[in-house]
Amino acid sequence: MEIIDQIAMIPGRSWGSNVYVVGKGELALIDSGLTGDFKSHFIKDIESLGLDPRNIRKLVITHFHPDHIGGVLEVVDFCAADVMIHEIEAAYIEKKAGFNVQVKLKDGDIIQLGNMNFEVIHTPGHSPGSICLYNSEKRILFSGDTVFAYGVGRTDIPGGDIIELKKSIKKLTELDVEILLPGHDVPVIGNANENIKLDYSFVESLPDDY
Known about the structure:
Layout: E1 2-4, E2 7-10, E3 19-22, E4 27-30, H1 37-48, E5 56-60, H2 66-69, H3 72-79, E6 82-86, H4 87-96, E7 103-105, E8 110-113, E9 116-122, E10 131-135, E11 140-144, E12 147-148, E13 151-152, H5 162-173, E14 179-182, E15 188-189, H6 192-204
Helix pairs in contact: 5-6
């Protein structure tokens, strides 16, 4: 489904992540879903948008969990895209998942996706190297598993840290966000600031040893 011009969402299958397609000519993907989904479904999904998946040049991973990186090798084998992930998680996935990271991201980096520039925001908590991507001009936030339309990322998993998640989401409340594009479930189109503030109120109410 097209969100706005230059951005489309392919909903996650089963427990896999949403995948976002950015651009019209040269394409970028945000996350890759579960292993097998790219070849079995996402290629056709991208083609149904009138786009050529062979033109994917960038693959940005919001964090290293299997439901987001499962399709990386399939994407790279298909179109030789550059893999981009936060530097904290790059070494881990190169060793454990068996693929190379071409661009190791850090907080404050600016990356061009389609015809838009996005700021990389390091948002640890759900995982040590979780990132969000923010475009201030169109007030768009790709939030990975840091915040959702109605909820926040889990921290009861290896690498999770509730205190860090609270800090990260508080940082997101300071942004002007109209469109929230999370790693799972539905997007928020319009006044997404309110959803982020509600998410922060919820997570702030949790004990630090939650």
